[in-house]
Design goal:
Layout (H helix, E strand, L loop, with lengths): L1 H5 L2 E10 L4 E10 L4 E6 L11 E2 L4 E6 L4 E6 L1 H18 L9 E6 L12 E2 L1 H5 L8 H7 L11 H12 L5 E5 L3 E11 L2 H6 L8 E8 L6 E8 L13 E6 L3 E6 L5 E5 L3 E5 L3
Parallel strand pairs: 3-7, 7-8
Antiparallel strand pairs: 1-2, 2-3, 4-5, 5-6, 9-10, 9-16, 10-14, 11-12, 11-16, 12-13, 14-15
Pfam families: NERD
Protein name: NERD domain-containing protein
Length: 278
């Protein structure tokens, strides 16, 4: 969606090493264009929140939810996103990319229509539905910031290096399901008939970066799995290098959900694609 609206490249589910804590910092999305980059957090908050009950000075938000009017204090997502951007920028510097000052900006997207009237760094539901693929639209202005017009484009060589580093950075595996649904987490294994598991034996994260599922039988009993060998070249894998195997549609994918111990089981017939991080 963001790529269609603003061009550039979106990197989803980044897990950036934080040198200060020794842990990994999750970054929902990073949009990289020729002129700047935006770190985007999507917060699926429930209930009702408005500027009247957002405590900006204390660094927290107060969210009222449910019929019992319970109020929950949440860490300020804007401040959290700025911290993510800072950690990402430090990571890029460690890998040899020193970005121009002010190159990164931050936005928080709130898809709940009951959340409204927020500061400039927050995109509410009403602003989201007004998005248009023109650079001067209101949403684009709120996403990229009012100062975007004063920024110079990054040198092409630096831009290519930035995209290469983000493309090879640690990230969650991504499962694309029917209905334009995405799930982030960790691919664990395939389960099914022995012949099918044997056919899929070469699909390991050390060897494969992406696979696509296609229905090739009349009644959907057989599927074709196309998979792309892992390739760190800047131009990526060519069409001729994709491999394919045929398996039963009843074969299952076991997938541990992001930041959870819960394991999701999905039949291959319900999956569009699976991206594996190195």
């Amino acid at each position: 969606m963001f790529e269609k609206l603003y061009g550039g490249k979106v990197y989803v589910g980044l897990r950036i090493p934080d040198a200060d804590t020794g842990s990994r910092q999750n970054v929902d999305m990073a949009l990289v264009t020729e002129g700047d980059a935006v770190v985007i957090s999507v917060k699926n908050l429930s209930g009702t929140v408005s500027s009247g009950i957002v405590s900006l000075k204390s660094g927290s938000w107060n969210c009222e939810s449910g019929n019992k009017h319970q109020t929950e204090r949440l860490p300020d997502p804007v401040m959290e996103t700025k911290k993510q951007a800072s950690i990402l920028e430090s990571y890029l510097e460690q890998r040899g990319v020193a970005l121009p000052e002010g190159y990164f900006s931050c936005k928080v997207v709130l898809p709940n229509p009951n959340l409204r009237d927020f500061p400039f760094d927050v995109i509410t539901y009403n602003q989201w539905v007004q998005q248009k693929p023109e650079p001067n639209s209101m949403f684009s202005g709120r996403l990229n910031g009012a100062s975007r017009g004063g920024k110079k484009e990054m040198p092409e060589s630096l831009h290519q290096k930035l995209n290469f580093i983000l493309r090879t950075a640690p990230m969650w595996d991504r499962l694309e399901l029917e209905g334009n649904k995405y799930v982030l987490g960790e691919f664990l294994e395939f389960k099914g008939e022995l012949a099918d598991i044997w056919a899929l034996k070469n699909i390991k994260r050390s060897k494969v970066s992406h696979l696509i599922i296609k229905n090739i039988s009349l009644f959907g009993s057989t599927l074709q799995v196309l998979y792309s060998p892992r390739d760190y070249r800047s131009e990526g894998t060519s069409d001729s290098e994709w491999k394919k195997v045929t398996v039963r549609s009843s074969t299952e994918v076991f997938f541990r959900l992001e930041n959870s111990t819960k394991v999701r089981k999905s039949k291959l017939s319900s999956i569009i694609s699976l991206s594996l991080t190195a």
